[in-house]
Specification:
The complex is a heterodimer of chains A (about 260) and B (about 270). Chain A is an alpha/beta fold. Chain A has 2 domains: about 170 residues, P-loop containing nucleotide triphosphate hydrolases (Rossmann fold, 3-Layer(aba) Sandwich); about 70 residues, no CATH class. Chain A is built from 7 helices and 9 strands; from the N terminus they run E-E-E-H-E-E-H-H-H-E-H-E-H-E-E-H. Chain A has a 6-stranded mixed β-sheet with strand order 5-6-7-3-8-9, sandwiched between helices. In chain A, strands 2-1-4 form a 3-stranded antiparallel β-sheet, with helices on one face. In chain A, helix 2 packs across helix 3, helix 2 packs parallel to helix 4 and helix 3 crosses helix 4. Chain A is globular, with a radius of gyration of 18 Å. Chain B is an all-alpha fold. Chain B folds into 2 domains: about 35 residues; about 220 residues, Orthogonal Bundle (MetI-like fold), CATH 1.10.3720. Chain B is about 80% helix and about 0% strand. In chain B, helix 4 crosses helix 7, helix 4 packs across helix 10 and helix 10 packs antiparallel against helix 11. In chain B, about 35% of the residues are buried. The chains are: A alpha/beta (about 260), B mainly alpha (about 270). At the A-B interface, helix 2 of A face helix 8 and helix 9 of B.
């Protein structure tokens, strides 16, 4: 079992994150949701080691060595934008993490093809990013994150810029991927529906300083399909989280 | 006429061509109408005749000027790119040396050229040096800007995948810099030619070099005005050719992916 127990404190001029404890057990899909500027993206970047926790608190990886940067750590990050290299074809974009890690071309070829077929992009290997739609670019970005077979997948509002139909379709595909590949995911979103649909657990974050306001386990059977969106349970979870979010957005003490 | 006007490509070639023909025609008729003497202002037909008759010596002069321009351009590209790579290594280096690159840029060649020509014995080398000084700055500034213009998201991605300095340079910084670099090439190639011509002017007829500027000076002394125009025509043609070459190179390198080279197709 792989446990990520995060505890950190991040004053950034202002205090962006109060000390936070968060555990993401292997195989779970945890979603952070909260008002804008509550520090959920910051939290994600801290986990990804893109930011330094300012108060020396560290991320602990129990069961996988002790330090950051040990080989047990395979984190993949999906950004808000597809973040593709415009000069490289789809296959080269997806292969990038393997190239950087020094994986041979021969081995990489199979893994790239596998990742691309999992996101439904077989046949687009030789395309350039500009030839693809926004949704397809995001799929390339997801394929790139899968290609290293990560043991933690971090996603920072990956579908925020897409239209709702594309977004719902990508959500469904992502959930399927998570289920098939037994991924562990930490997901950030603004959308309550997206959070409930995808997650095994939703963490509501309140703003200034960011801290965990409420946590709810979405206790619905997996694998879920589009039908889940219409179920009474789905609506109940959404209502609950919506109410918490409204509460979380009011600063404590009131102004 | 109609289908021709509708075609975008035909328009962009035909329209300027027609304007050019009309202007040359007007020039020719005006000169004939007012009987302007050749030594004051030659007719296009006089210039054409001179180009044809003086072709061998003009061609030799053109070759000389182009050689200097190309040597200067080549040197500027190599040196400028190297300097840019050094600049992006650290902000301290860039801050310390960039003002001197600017000094090089703002001081007119005409002002530096006599010094260089006095200091450097070999005329050819002196001329090349002058032209290089002019052509250098756009390469330095554009390439430096390009190497710094990396998508922050991609930079994070490389960092997360623990890319080494060299990997980041080769796979991220250099490709990101290419569009800027080619922009620099376009400006610099033109400047190299201008630098070569200006330096020749400053060196004057005393030098043993005999490029197109020398031709113009000589023709001026001899009041051979059509020859002056002919030499000027060749300089312009060489400049246009150089620019087109750079455009073609840029298209070749960036055509597949960069917005500036990609047509409006979806």
């Amino acid at each position: 079992m792989e446990v990520l127990s995060v505890e950190k404190f991040f004053p950034d001029g202002t205090r962006a994150l109060a000390p936070i404890d968060l555990t993401v057990p292997a195989g779970e899909f945890v979603t952070l949701i909260g008002p804008s500027g509550c520090g959920k993206s910051t939290l994600l970047k801290l986990v990804a080691d893109l930011l330094e926790p300012s108060d020396g608190r560290i991320l602990w990886w129990r069961g996988y060595g002790d330090k950051l940067g040990s080989d047990g750590r395979r984190i993949a990050f999906v950004f808000q934008d597809p973040t593709l290299m415009p000069w490289a074809r789809v296959e080269a974009n997806v292969r990038l993490p393997l190239d950087l890690a020094g994986v041979t071309r021969q081995e990489a070829r199979g893994r790239v093809a596998d990742a691309l077929s999992r996101v439904g992009l077989q046949g687009f290997e030789r395309h350039y990013p500009r030839q693809l739609s926004g949704g397809m670019r995001m799929r390339v970005s997801i394929a790139r994150s899968l290609v290293t077979d990560p043991n933690l997948l971090l996603m920072d509002e990956p579908f925020g810029a897409l239209d709702e139909i594309t977004r719902n379709r990508l959500d469904a595909d992502l959930l399927k991927l998570w289920w098939e590949r037994k991924l562990t995911a930490l997901f950030v979103t603004h959308s309550i529906y997206e959070a409930v649909f995808l997650s095994t657990r939703v963490v509501v974050i309140s703003a200034r300083p960011g801290r965990i306001f409420k946590t709810v386990t979405i206790d619905e059977p997996q694998p879920r399909d589009e039908g889940f969106r219409d179920s009474p349970g789905f609506a109940a979870y959404c209502r609950q989280i919506s109410a918490w979010l409204a509460e979380a957005s009011v600063p404590p003490g009131g102004e | 006429m109609r289908p021709l006007a509708q075609s975008e490509a035909a328009m962009s070639i035909a329209a300027p061509f027609l304007v050019g023909v009309a202007m040359i025609g007007l020039w020719e008729t005006m000169c004939r109408e007012f009987e302007i003497p050749v030594f004051l202002f030659p007719k296009p037909s006089d210039i054409g005749r001179t180009v044809a008759s003086e072709w061998p010596s003009l061609l030799r002069a053109l070759g000389m000027t182009l050689r200097i321009a190309f040597q200067a351009f080549g040197t500027a590209v190599i040196v400028g790119t190297l300097i840019a790579f050094v600049f992006v290594q650290s902000r301290v280096i860039e801050r310390s040396f960039f003002p001197y690159a600017v000094l090089l840029q703002v001081t007119p060649v005409v002002a530096i050229a006599p010094l260089i020509i006095i200091l450097v014995k070999n005329t050819q080398l002196a001329l090349t040096l002058c032209a290089t000084v002019v052509a250098l700055f756009p390469i330095i500034s554009n390439t430096t800007l390009g190497l710094r213009s990396v998508d922050p998201g991609l930079a994070s991605l490389f960092r997360m995948n623990r890319a080494g300095r060299l990997q980041t340079l080769w796979r991220l910084r250099i490709p990101s810099a290419l569009p800027y670099f080619f922009g620099g090439l376009r400006i610099s190639s033109g400047l190299a030619l201008i630098g070569a011509v200006v330096a020749e002017f400053v060196a004057g007829t005393g030098g043993r070099s005999s490029g197109l500027a020398y031709e113009i000076l000589q023709a001026g002394f001899a009041l051979d005005i059509p020859r002056m125009f002919a030499a000027m025509l060749l300089i312009t043609a060489a400049g246009v050719a150089l620019f087109s070459l750079m455009v073609a190179l840029s298209k070749l390198a960036l055509g597949a992916w960069h917005e500036s080279e990609v047509g409006v197709e979806t």
